[in-house]
Each structure stands twice: as structure tokens, then as C-alpha cells.
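Saturday, quiet lab. Running sequence design on the C-alpha cells for the scaffold JK sent over.
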């Protein structure tokens, strides 16, 4: 299997895994607690919200940082900084494939 085919397969598998876990964690949640204020905040909605308004990357691009109540609630509720994802981001960064481009 060529590098390109392996890369495409790995990328496809990763995206499917992310979607499944993201869907399983989010399920029907539309809001969660903001860890800074303790208040309920709406979760990030990719069709309505601007990613750059709610999130930033840590200096080494491995941790997703919520910079608004919505961002913090989303990061916490969906476990977006769990160990496996943080490790994967580090590997992808070293391979020049992270962070993703944000439209």
C-alpha cells in the first residue's frame, strides 16, 4: 500500500472515529457548564458559530482552549483534550498535518 493510500485510509478512519465519538459524547446536548463561571453555556455549533471566536490552540498545538463560555463548555463536555486526542495532535503536528485550517 502506497504512502498516499495509507495516509488516505488513516485519515478516513480518524475522521470516522472522531465523528462517532463526537456524536456519542454530544448526542443531544446543546449546552453544558462553563468551567470558569459555573454558568450554563450553549455548546459550539459549527454552522452558526465562528471557530476562531470560541477556541484557540495551546503553544504546541496539542490542547484546544475554550476562550469563551461556549468554547470552554464545549471542550469540557465533549472531552476534546482527552489523552489520546492530545497525543494524536502532537504526532500530526510533527508530521505537518496539524493544526487544521479554519475557514
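Result came back. Writing it out in full:
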Amino acid at each position: 500500500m502506497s504512502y498516499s493510500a495509507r495516509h488516505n485510509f488513516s485519515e478516513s478512519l480518524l475522521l470516522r472515529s472522531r465523528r462517532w465519538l463526537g456524536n456519542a459524547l454530544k448526542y443531544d446536548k446543546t449546552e453544558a457548564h462553563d468551567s470558569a463561571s459555573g454558568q450554563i453555556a450553549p455548546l459550539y455549533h459549527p454552522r452558526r458559530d465562528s471557530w476562531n471566536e470560541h477556541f484557540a490552540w495551546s503553544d504546541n498545538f496539542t490542547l484546544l482552549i475554550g476562550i469563551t463560555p461556549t468554547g470552554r463548555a464545549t471542550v469540557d463536555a465533549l472531552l476534546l483534550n482527552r489523552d489520546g486526542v492530545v497525543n494524536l495532535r502532537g504526532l500530526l503536528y510533527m508530521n505537518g498535518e496539524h493544526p487544521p485550517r479554519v475557514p
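Notes for JK: Residues 29-94 form one domain. The two ends are 32 Å apart (CA to CA). Ask whether to fix the surface positions before the next round.
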